[in-house]
# Entry
Amino acid sequence: MLTTSSLVRRFQVGLIMLLAVACLCLRPGVADAQLMTFISTAPCGGLPAGYQNVWIMNADGTGVQPVTSSSINATHPDLSPDGTRIVFALNGDIWGINTDGTGLTQLTTDGNTNDNANPAWSPDKTKIVFRKSGDIYVMNADGSSPSQLTSYFAPGQSDNPCWSPDGSEIAFVHGPNGSDGIWQIPATGGTPTQVTAPNSGDYACPTYSPDGKWIAYESDSSGAWEIYATDGSHETQFSCTAGFISAASGASGLSWIPNGQYIYFSAGNTGASPIYRVDVSTCAVDTVLSNGYTNKNPSFGFGAKLMGFLTPPTVIGGKPFLITIMLKFPEPQDTPISLFSNNSAIQLPPTVIVPAGQSSVSVGINTTPVTRQQKPTIGAYYIIAPNEVPFTKTITLKPIGVQSLTLAPNTVTSGNSSTGILVLDCAAGSGGDVVYLSSSNSSIASVPASVTVVAGSSCHTFPITTYQGVPGTATITAKAQGSTVPKRATLTVYP
# Structure
């Protein structure tokens, strides 16, 4: 086993490689903007202390707030890669909830016969891995199609699953109390491989480094619970964490912050248990949250570091909209972001730049007219880290429509004409836009079958013919090609 000093040297080298690959750098203060989730028994929502609710906070311990506020005993929350949703275990089932406390959803329903626990998101947010009665299962993010991964083992001895950052592998502990060490299995299933050599201690809570080269975990193999890490060849020890983890309550969760600088952990499962973090390059431990209550199961959202929104979410083809790209934390240098879409009507620039020190940028995007309503996908990803989970949003692109229809005049004497004035939602595109016309009674008032609004114009007039001695009313209808919303106006014809 390596010493603490050799561990530090090894991790200093490993981190340089990790950060070079990820094109990130260790920067004090920047990592602190990262959102995380955890379990706490602190009082919330008018409830006394003692219930285990799901909470969120920033990585520096600020912004602490509950997500659930109920008389429950939730465990093992995991933050989604885009930081918007949390899965957790409660009463033998897996549940999901938005980080703002809305959208509570039960994902498994067999908790009365199975013990479902330890859920974790896949990096692309499409799957959830979890423990079912001591075996490892994967299901879709909506709870459908659960399938067992660990049929290779005798049932009932696997726990604490987590995904590799690229989504290809799942690590877990095996054996009674994890005594057979850390194992890996392909996320699609197959034969598991042992990552750590078994010894007299117990193993728990594996978590991957952001580059996927290391797995950190907790073990009491030295006689006290400490944090270790392995690259598959060497098992290393963070001896600086000795004494921080309660010997009485044991392992209570690890999570590696996505920029790679710290591993977060809890003091234990009971009593006054702070959340700590250990600097992987210096082996220094500092306190993140200490409130006198039990705080455990810290978890960061691995995967997407991009978020964003579209304004407005629905736009008429030919009109612009605004896309806002947000980084989870600002970068010290200009950050190029690549944009993409599955629809040529969305005229995206190939790249946008988030300026150094800023966390967002907004860009106007042009569109071209469409002949039917469409819902194209728009996305963005880091050029410097193309394997990151991309940010994607769907925008509703509507065909140009008739905004208004006016008749001038709207009352005439039979035999006299009127003029229809139609206005489009926006200027007609190249080649013009066709508007179809009709009359509810063409023997009283007739109109052309269609007119074409010339390119660049949004207004057009057309004649309405009435007939001598034929009074009555007729409704004139105008509908742009591809639009499903017509405009109508009524003409009254006197004798």
Observations:
- Residues 1-33 have pLDDT under 50 and may be disordered.
- The CA atoms of residues 185 and 192 lie 4 Å apart.
- The longest strand covers residues 472-480.
- The chain has three domains: 4-300, 306-395, 402-494.
